[in-house]
Design a protein that fits this description.
Layout lengths: L6 H23 L17 E8 L10 E11 L5 E5 L6 E4 L4 E5 L5 E6 L7 E6 L2
Parallel strand pairs: 1-2
Antiparallel strand pairs: 2-5, 3-4, 3-6, 6-7
């Protein structure tokens, strides 16, 4: 810097430079509404139909599903099972040995744990998302 400038002039020049940098930084960081990507959830995209199999008193894993997805449950065991929501009234379906049932997933976004009324250690969950 030139030593003939006064302290107030030097401060003014610094303040102007900082202001210009801040404006340039903000302009570079902003994006239009059209450029912004929709937020995504980690993991695979939800699907609109899924099959859950029951075998050896265990539910198969389920991928994320969309609201209202078609859920097919196949019971390969020789015993009667259920797929019952832990939230009373959401869903409660019984599946006889060798039977297949179909029902509709909840419309509510979120995790919906379920269990078998007949075998306490059988449990799983539905992940409903957009």
């Amino acid at each position: 810097m030139n030593s003939t400038r006064t302290i107030p002039e030097q401060r003014h020049r610094v303040a102007v430079a900082v202001g210009v940098l801040a404006i340039a930084w903000a302009a570079g960081c902003s994006t239009s509404e059209q450029e912004q990507a929709a937020p995504t959830s980690p993991g695979p995209a939800p699907i609109s139909a899924v099959t859950i199999t029951i075998e050896k008193q265990t539910y198969s894993d389920t991928p994320p599903i969309t609201p209202g997805a078609v859920i097919t449950v196949i019971n390969h065991d020789l015993l009667k099972h259920s797929i019952t929501s832990r939230r009373p009234g959401l869903f409660d379906n019984e599946i006889g040995p060798g039977q297949t049932i179909t029902f509709t997933a909840p419309d509510e976004i979120g995790s919906h744990p379920f269990y078998c009324k007949y075998f306490a250690l059988m449990d799983g969950w539905l992940s409903v998302r957009h």
